[in-house]
Amino acid sequence: LAWRFDWEKRDLIEDLQSMRQLLREGLAESSLRHSLIRRALDAGTSKTISDLEAALRAERSKNWELCYYARDIEEDKWKLAARLRDSVPTQIGSNPLSKAKTVMYHALEMEMLGLREKARNLKGRERSRSVQGKM
């Protein structure tokens, strides 16, 4: 009977060693598989993160451009408001029906005034002596 227990003990030890070996190999395979999966996921995640960072940089650039564009528009608006304030005569406030003259209207009035002055000066002038001598 003792020899029988010895053989069973040896069989159990061999089974235990083979199970330990299988367990080690299984863990090695599963850890390898998990590490490969983790690497693939990390690579995909890092690519996604880098793509999102590039998109964020592009949006920040657009945001800065739009901020400066808005500042330029505000400056132009302020300049135009100042020009409008300077070009509107103060007498308009007394007569609400009168309208402010546009720049083009003002320029045409000035040109007409200049032509009237030339016409007045031509009527009062005599012919020049060089023209009179040839007649």
Fold and architecture overview:
The protein has 135 residues and is an all-alpha fold. The protein has one domain (2-86, 99-134). Helices cover 84% and strands 0% of the residues. The chain is built from three helices and no strands. The protein is rod-shaped and about 150 Å long.
Number of domains: 1
Q: What amount of the residues lies in strands?
A: under 5%
| Strand/helix succession | HHH
- Main beta sheet: none
The helicity comes to over 70%
Average predicted confidence as pLDDT:
76
| DSSP summary: helix tally | 3
Helix/strand/pairing category = mainly alpha
Number of strands: 0
End-to-end C-alpha gap: 165 Å
The shape, in one word, is rod-shaped
Radius of gyration: 49 Å
Low-confidence stretches: none
Features:
135 residues, mainly alpha
Question: What layout of secondary structure does this protein have?
Answer:
Layout: H1 2-87, H2 103-124, H3 129-134
